[in-house]
């Protein structure tokens, strides 16, 4: 083909999150030597890429009417093609390197503007709420997508338990900060710990899921064990993995991606085919396992459930 249009671009043509960061790291001479030497430095015994991934365990759950009827991607796809920069920048790095993460024991601290600040042990948290299977589309800002059968409970149920004060307007999330378990944190590629945030009404939407499993089993490490957020109408980077802290705040929290690349990634990050990324189109996407690109849907196909949250907002400005 002589002339390529945007829709002919393949994922290999599209420059992804990592390219910008790699280039920046290269310019500053800081590119993660630590990432490259994991396994042969002084801490090799702790951070060894050969550490096997812990086994996952079956979970009891009920099915949800909020699931899509689209066919899920295979478990192999979902667990081997990942973004989890704490374990490296390439898609196959998390499956290879995440054996160093210890998902038990694990505490999730809930604090800030709440009547009942609480420290939850992960197994108590999993038992506190009935689990549901939610089969959701996941649309990465890099313009690939998957369908994933997640297991989890609505974040709204947790919010009801801790009782936000009238000052609470946002919810901030943090991933574990521990370079011995997460060797990618030795590189300054992102502002660690990985941070994300939602407006309180987004956090309380019934689609917003605290996720503890997939394909009927506890989460594999590379997918964010033992607990992660899933917000299906937003670009995948909002769905923060391996969460240790959930804080209720009066002001909009800072997020790692908007700190590291503010011109490329905003706070809202709703999937929007009409607003292109500065370096590629968002009008279509490649579903992993499919050959032809498919059109990207507003709010990733969840407009009926969430568009009303953004009434009166200019969605080009608040991207
Ligand atoms: N802590 C943390 N959470 C993260 C990321 C990350 O690098 N670190 N990557 C995000 C991005 S860009 C995407 S697309 C999804 C990918 O989730 P998956 O690997 O389970 O498909 O996780 C998100 N959550
Ligand atoms: Mo992503």
Describe the structure.
This protein is of the alpha+beta class and 319 residues long. The chain has a single domain, classed as Alpha-Beta Complex (Sulfite Oxidase, Chain A, domain 2). The protein is built from 9 helices and 13 strands. The strands form 2 sheets. Strands 1, 4, 5, 8, 9, 10, 12 and 13 form an 8-stranded mixed β-sheet that branches. A 5-stranded mixed β-sheet has the order 3-2-11-6-7. Strand 2 and strand 3 form a beta hairpin. The longest helix has 11 residues. The radius of gyration is 19 Å and the shape is globular. The two termini are 34 Å apart. The N terminus is likely disordered. Bound molecules: the ligand Nc1nc2c(c(=O)[nH]1)N[C@H]1C(S)=C(S)[C@@H](COP(=O)(O)O)O[C@H]1N2 and molybdenum atom.
CATH architecture assignment: Alpha-Beta Complex
Oligomer: single chain
Instruction: Note the beta-strand portion.
Output: 15-25%
Instruction: Estimate the mean pLDDT confidence.
Output: 89
Question: Biggest sheet, in brief?
Answer: 8 strands, mixed
Task: Please tell me what the overall shape is.
Answer: globular
List the domain count as a whole number. Answer: 1
* Ligands present: ligand MTE, molybdenum atom
CATH class: Alpha Beta
What is the terminal-to-terminal distance? 34 Å
From the alpha carbons, calculate the radius of gyration and give it in angstroms: 19 Å
């Amino acid at each position: 083909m002589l002339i390529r249009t945007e829709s002919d671009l393949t994922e290999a043509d599209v420059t992804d999150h990592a390219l910008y960061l790699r280039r920046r790291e290269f310019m500053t001479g800081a590119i993660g030597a630590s990432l490259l030497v994991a396994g042969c430095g002084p801490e090799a015994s702790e951070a060894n890429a050969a550490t096997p991934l812990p086994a996952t365990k079956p979970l009891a759950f009920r099915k949800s009417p909020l699931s899509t009827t689209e066919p899920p991607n295979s478990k192999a796809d979902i667990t081997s093609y990942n973004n989890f920069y704490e374990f490296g920048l390439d898609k196959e790095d998390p499956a290879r390197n995440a054996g160093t993460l210890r998902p038990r024991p694990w505490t999730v601290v809930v604090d800030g503007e709440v009547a009942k600040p609480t420290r939850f042990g992960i197994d108590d948290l999993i038992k506190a709420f009935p689990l549901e299977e939610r089969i959701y589309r996941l649309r990465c800002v890099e313009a690939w997508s998957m369908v994933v059968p997640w297991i989890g409970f609505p974040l709204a149920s947790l919010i009801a338990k801790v009782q936000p004060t009238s000052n609470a307007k946002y919810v901030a999330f943090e991933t574990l900060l521990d370079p011995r378990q997460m060797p990618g944190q030795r590189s300054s590629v992102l502002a660690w710990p990985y941070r994300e945030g939602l407006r309180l009404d987004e956090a309380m939407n019934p689609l917003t899921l605290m996720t503890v499993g997939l394909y009927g089993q506890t989460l594999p490490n590379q997918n964010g064990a033992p607990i992660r957020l899933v917000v299906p109408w937003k670009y995948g980077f909002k769905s923060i993995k391996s969460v240790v802290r959930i804080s209720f705040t009066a002001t909009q929290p800072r997020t790692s991606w908007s700190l590291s690349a503010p011109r490329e990634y905003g706070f809202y990050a709703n999937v929007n085919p009409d607003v292109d990324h500065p370096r590629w189109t968002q009008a279509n996407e490649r579903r992993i396992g499919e050959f032809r690109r498919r059109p990207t849907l507003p709010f990733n196909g969840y407009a009926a459930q969430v568009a009303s949250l953004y009434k009166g907002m200019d969605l080009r400005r608040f991207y």
